[in-house]
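Case study 2.
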Amino acid sequence: MFVEFITNPAAVTLAQQVKLDCVVYAYRVMSITKLVRRAMSTKISKKKSTIAKSADVEMADATQPGPSMQSLTSDKAVSATS
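Prediction:
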């Protein structure tokens, strides 16, 4: 018994169409990848900016003049002896 392979013309047409569209698919994947990278880069830079601003605010709060730990402890020691 001999089995003959018959090529499906619809499959051949579809294969040719996919081969032609392959370049378009590749460019679409590249553009999506670029957009994702750009979005992540923007998000990271905004996050860094926010962190830097909050660190500046905290540093400014920490360096404001006011009672130091040394003066507070010596005041307590003086008042304890009185």
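The mean pLDDT is 82.
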